[in-house]
Amino acid sequence: MTRNVIARLAAANPVPTGAPLRAPARVPRRVALAAALAVLVAVPAVAFAGRLADVLGISNEGTSVPVTSVLPGQSQLDQALQDMGVGSTMQLLGTLNGVRFYAARNPEGRVCLATDQDPYPKGVVCDLRTPGFPSPDDQVLGFPRMLIGIAADGVAKVAFADANGDVIVSTPVENNLFASDTRLDPGEAAYVETFDANGNVTSKRALPG
């Protein structure tokens, strides 16, 4: 992706201010510029023959919808999706806690995510790490400071932990989706962790500083 695309994404995802909102947290500008909006994730896709999972690397197949219907009326975010190269369709993965989730893999193999929750602001993010979500070490793709995103197969819970490794907030995963309305202050969380159904930690990743 070009610097212009990164700039568009940064502009399209302003950081919310004021009281916590029941909506996806957008990516901070410095993270967008430094990490190209690859907030929580990275590494290789798992194949599931004969299913859409071959494309996204998760077993939630979703339903194909026109990309023009994903964030209608949101010109900046719509342009960001075009710049990310998601193509003419995205997969509607479902709705959880009022948040609608859409995902697609662009021609570069990057998983891109869009979230929508009326009447609050919307959000988009694209994993630019190599080789890309999902993988054993990086099992979530989402937004900073808020537990909203998609998780790899086998993940039952996603949590933010502080610098000491103590869990601050967690939320269950349903059909590869997770959504919590708790928004943390900048720097409050140091890690994002994933857990299996038995409560075992399956991955732990440091968050951008």
Describe this structure in words.
The chain is an alpha+beta fold and 209 residues long. It has one domain (3-206). The chain has helices at 3-12, 29-35, 53-56, 75-83, and strands at 63-66, 89-96, 99-105, 111-116, 123-126, 140-143, 146-151, 157-161, 167-172, 177-183, 191-195, 201-206. The protein has a five-stranded antiparallel sheet, covered by helices on one side. A hairpin with a 2-residue loop joins strand 2 and strand 3 (99-105). Helix 1 (3-12) packs antiparallel against helix 2 and helix 1 runs antiparallel to helix 4. The two termini are 23 Å apart.
Features:
single chain; 209 residues; alpha+beta; 5-stranded antiparallel beta sheet; 4-stranded antiparallel beta sheet; 4 helices; 12 strands; 14% helix; 33% strand; disordered N terminus
Give a brief outline of the structure.
Residues 1-7 and 14-53 have low confidence and may be disordered. A hairpin with a 5-residue loop joins strand 11 and strand 12.
Q: Topology, pairings included?
A:
Layout lengths: L2 H10 L16 H7 L17 H4 L6 E4 L8 H9 L5 E8 L2 E7 L5 E6 L6 E4 L13 E4 L2 E6 L5 E5 L5 E6 L4 E7 L7 E5 L5 E6 L3
Antiparallel strand pairs: 1-2, 2-3, 3-4, 4-5, 6-7, 7-10, 8-9, 8-11, 11-12
Helix pairs in contact: 1-2, 1-4
